[in-house]
Amino acid sequence: MPNRHLARSIAMQSLFEWDFKGNPTAILPMIVKHNSEEFAPGLEEKEFTEQIVNGVLDHLKEIDELISRFAPSWPIGQITLVDRNILRIGVYELKFSKDIPPKVAINEAIELAKSFGGASSGKFVNGVLGSMYVEIQKKNPSTTEK
Fold first, then answer.
1. What's the whole-model pTM score?
2. What is d(CA 137, CA 139) in angstroms, rounded to the nearest whole number?
3. Predicted pLDDT of residue 138
């Protein structure tokens, strides 16, 4: 598994655990450290995992608002924990991370959804992030794929 994909998987698993435990921000660094050691010893992209997790937390309110806007039939609390945290990573990378090409952010989120989510998770994640990407392109048509 490529390093960045594995780093995203660790970020998603850590955010999932954090969300499952009721969002105790103080223990999130310990969750990330434990998951990195348990599931990816020797991972060279540990900083990337931390960047994703911290980026999601720093922008959580806006990310959740965007998810709610682009998945209007699904209140944020009714989206499964796995799908919700995959979407949070995808929205973070799509909207706030300047070094991740939009299509990479979307494709990586879809792959996480296929690996960790339910039967329709990939389609759901693709629909939400795809709609968001279309709007971003409409607002800024000069944006080109990196």
1. 0.92
2. 5
3. 87
